[in-house]
Specification:
- 68% of the residues lie in helices and 0% in strands.
- By secondary structure, the chain is an all-alpha fold.
- Helix 3 (41-53) packs across helix 12 (223-245), helix 4 (56-68) packs across helix 11 (203-217) and helix 5 runs parallel beside helix 15.
Length: 363
């Protein structure tokens, strides 16, 4: 009861929003959006919605920094990843069984075991592969962050990482010597490099330190101002992505990668907005419900692949026009999310039973 009382509802809401954002982004992966010419107001709406929900993985990463920023390399640290690995193992097995017996894929025992270690059984498991490395680095990242004795130096660290991992995404993406390119940017993928871009792939560390900084110093933005900034950002970045792909199929360029500056800005604003919701006086059943759903989000993320394969073929068969499918965005995303969370809750229940059995054996 005390653990529930001390737990932040805002952080649970952030994790749940990150999960729903993942499922929302996958709507566009599965509804044929990427095979459709980007033109017309329907595709503008779809492009803008997709742009916003790219905050999904960054939200998880900032939350990791917010929660793990004080962890040290001490006895018991490595045990903290046990549940994550168990959830991944269970989801990986379930996804492999689904692919074999429902989708009819040729997955034998050897391939199934190999798929666990190369993160291919669960098709969205790249996040786990990345997170394991980040988890191993966290005590050392915290040591580096903690060694900076002033707010100014820590802010410089965050901006240095943004410069290395995010700035190239909005600077190195133009062709300055062609007027035709500016009219139709989808006509050529050759861009002029202005700033170094080698470090872009370490963007998880950028988000991690951003979470550490928010946790330590906080961010003061009035809610209405924060909301206005979010809306302006989404419209601006959505319009830009529409412009970059106009009269072409959607171009997944560096300006919209996970670590891209537009995603950093939107994620930061959304994280702060949600963090400032105070629900300490919410009824205990609300807090408990948020707690349960929040804990199931990682498994739901991994397992959502299964339900994507169920719902989207039905949507695509019933609604042949791709731009009409956006009308079913909310019910389809909700269905996938709820089913994924429900299956994830079963995994959580099994994990708790195993934990209980181990404790009894030790006592």
């Amino acid at each position: 009861m005390n653990a529930l009382k001390n737990r932040s509802c805002a952080l649970d809401i952030i994790r749940i929003c990150a999960f729903f954002s993942v499922v929302s982004v996958h709507f566009f992966l599965n509804c044929g959006f990427y095979y459709t010419t980007v033109a017309g107001w329907e595709m503008f709406v779809m492009t803008t919605i997709r742009t916003f929900f790219m905050i999904c993985v960054p939200l998880f990463l900032i939350l990791t920094g917010f929660l793990m920023g004080k962890k040290k390399l001490e006895k018991g640290y490595y045990q903290k990843i046990t549940k994550t690995l168990f959830v991944y193992l269970a989801a990986s097995i379930l996804c492999a069984l689904y692919k074999k017996f429902y989708l009819g894929q040729d997955i034998g025992l050897a391939n199934g075991i190999a798929g666990i270690f190369n993160y291919t059984n669960a098709s969205y498991a790249w996040y786990i592969e990345m997170y394991i490395g980040l988890f191993l680095l966290i005590p050392f990242l915290n040591g580096a962050y903690g060694s900076l004795e002033s707010k100014k130096k820590k802010l410089i660290l965050v901006f240095t990482l943004i410069f290395l991992t995010s700035l190239p995404s909005v600077v190195n993406i133009y062709k300055f010597n062609s007027l035709l390119w500016w009219k139709i940017p989808s006509s050529d993928w050759q861009y002029t490099k202005i700033v170094p871009s080698w470090w872009q792939n370490i963007y998880p560390i950028t988000y991690y330190f951003l979470g550490c900084y928010i946790k330590e110093f906080g961010v003061k933005i009035k809610k209405w101002q924060n909301l206005v900034l979010i809306l302006i950002s989404v419209l601006a970045f959505g319009s830009f992505n529409f412009y970059r792909s106009y009269n072409s199929t959607f171009i997944s360029g560096p300006w919209q990668d996970w670590g891209a500056l537009p995603n950093v800005i939107m994620t930061f604003l959304v994280f702060v907005f949600l963090l400032n919701f105070k629900l300490e006086n919410a009824p205990s059943f609300v807090k408990k419900g948020l707690n349960i759903v929040s804990d199931a989000c990682l498994g739901g993320y991994l397992l959502s692949y299964i339900f994507d394969q169920h719902f989207y073929p039905l949507l695509n068969e019933k609604i042949p026009q791709i731009t009409d499918r956006i009308k079913y965005f909310i019910p389809v995303v909700f269905a996938v999310a709820v089913c994924s969370l429900a299956l994830s809750l079963l995994i959580d229940a099994v994990y708790k039973l195993i934990q209980s059995a181990i404790k009894k054996m030790k006592s």
